[in-house]
Amino acid sequence: AISRARVEVKFYLGQYQEVFKLLLSREYSQQFHEEMQEKWWKSHYNQTEWMKGRTLTAVDRYRLRKKFPAPRTIWDGDEKSYCFKGKSRNCLKDFYETNQYPSP
Fold first, then answer.
1. Which of 49, 60, 62, 86 has its CA 20 to 30 A from that of 43?
2. Which has the closest alpha carbon to 73: 43, 40, 28, 18?
3. Rounded-to-integer distance, Cα 29 and Cα 54, Å
4. Which of 103, 77, 81, 102 is nearest to 90 (CA)?
5. Distance set, CA 18 to CA 5, 38, 44, 45, 63 (Å)
6. Residue 56 has what DSSP assignment?
7. Which residues lie below 8 Å from residue 68, measured CB to CB, with a gap of 6+?
8. Do residues 55 and 49 touch, judged by C-beta distance below 8 A?
9. Bridge partner residues of 81 (DSSP)
10. This prediction's pTM
């Protein structure tokens, strides 16, 4: 709880390098991964916006996400595609292959 509060304070103060250090320094519980990933991305977005002096486009944000992937401390390594994680997508795909038209 203390480390999450520190991340929040550093983010609020605009000290993005400190946010990155804190997020890389320790493992966070999986229940907080989404929240910490959001801080990771927004820190990169805000820092880049400040450096470029303009708001970022969707393409800029996409490139930042590819250039700076979330660290293993705040991510389980399972890619998300269309709101589904890789394991879930594979499970659904396997089920669809066995029964394309399930009955209710």
1. 86
2. 28
3. 35
4. 81
5. 13, 15, 12, 15, 22
6. P
7. 40, 44
8. yes
9. 84
10. 0.71
Spatial distance between the Cα atoms of 77 and 70, rounded to a whole number of angstroms: 9
**Amino acid at site 35:** E
Q: Which residues contact 4 (CB under 8 A, 6 or more apart)?
A: 28, 32, 35, 36
Residue 57 CA to residue 68 CA, distance in Å, equals: 16
29-61 pLDDT, tens digit per residue, is 888 888 889 999 999 999 999 999 999 999 999
Q: Please enumerate in sequence order all residues whose Cβ is within 8 A of that of 95, keeping only pairs 6 or more positions apart, or say none.
A: 102
Query: How does 35-46 read in b/e, with b if 16+ C-beta sit within 10 Å?
Result: ebbebbeebbbe
Q: What is the distance between the alpha carbons of residues 73 and 77, in angstroms, rounded to a whole number?
A: 10
Predicted local confidence at residue 28, as pLDDT? 85
State the Cα–Cα distance between residues 46 and 96, nearest whole angstrom: 42
| Residues β-bridged to residue 85 | 80
DSSP 28: -
